[in-house]
């Protein structure tokens, strides 16, 4: 059992918290109330960033001391939304939210994952008709190994997990969010994920 804090109690955060609790972890979900994120981050070993990407850097930067020595699993995408509310551009072109978080939190081990799919697939990858791929980006091999274990608890088989390398590789997976509005407009709001076919 691992103590996990989920920052963000929307659809993504709630879904991850429920699935990880079912897997036997002790999970705390931080809401928007003052001090909630501070307390959750302080007591956890692993912190999951499921806050809206546009405000993640500011929110998590304020938790620098609480996140020191922790693994931060970043599942958010920082986007500029179009008139329809769907992603129309990247907030950090030429970089990524994950890189910005690692720069702002040098004492924290940031791992980017689960950001290339509709949120329902994060906790139920086997429900898709074809095998999906989930990616890992981060500087710390041990932290990525821990996150592999969490992914397994969420139903991801090891052969579905691709380690892309350092944190800068998150630029590629975060850019993949630009597929989302086009896929939704062409196929409807149905579960989907990126898959690397070999």
Write the layout of secondary structure elements.
Blueprint: E1 3-7, H1 11-22, E2 26-30, H2 36-43, E3 46-49, H3 53-61, E4 71-74, E5 79-81, E6 87-90, H4 97-104, E7 109-112, H5 119-122, E8 134-138, H6 141-153, E9 161-165, H7 170-175, H8 180-187
Helix pairs in contact: 3-4
Beta-strand proportion: 15-25%
**How would you classify the helix and strand content by structural class?**
alpha/beta
Q: How are the strands of the largest sheet arranged?
A: 2-1-3-4-7-8-9
Basic shape: globular
Compute the CA-based radius of gyration.
Answer: 16 Å
Helix content: 25-40%
Order of helices and strands: EHEHEHEEEHEHEHEHH
Q: Please identify which CATH superfamily we are dealing with.
A: NAD(P)-binding Rossmann-like Domain
Whole-number average pLDDT? 95
Quickly count the helices: 8
The count of DSSP E runs of length 2 or more, i.e. the number of strands, is 9
Give the CATH class. Alpha Beta
State the end-to-end CA separation: 35 Å
Any overview of this molecule?
The protein has helices spanning 11-22, 36-43, 53-61, 97-104, 119-122, 141-153, 170-175, 180-187; strands spanning 3-7, 26-30, 46-49, 71-74, 79-81, 87-90, 109-112, 134-138, 161-165. The chain is α/β, with parallel strands linked by helices and 198 residues long. The chain has one domain: 3-Layer(aba) Sandwich (Rossmann fold). The strands form two sheets. Strands 2-1-3-4-7-8-9 form a seven-stranded mixed beta sheet, with helices on both faces. The longest helix is centred in the C-terminal third of the chain and has 13 residues, at 141-153. The radius of gyration is 16 Å and the shape is globular. The termini are far apart. 43% of the residues are buried.
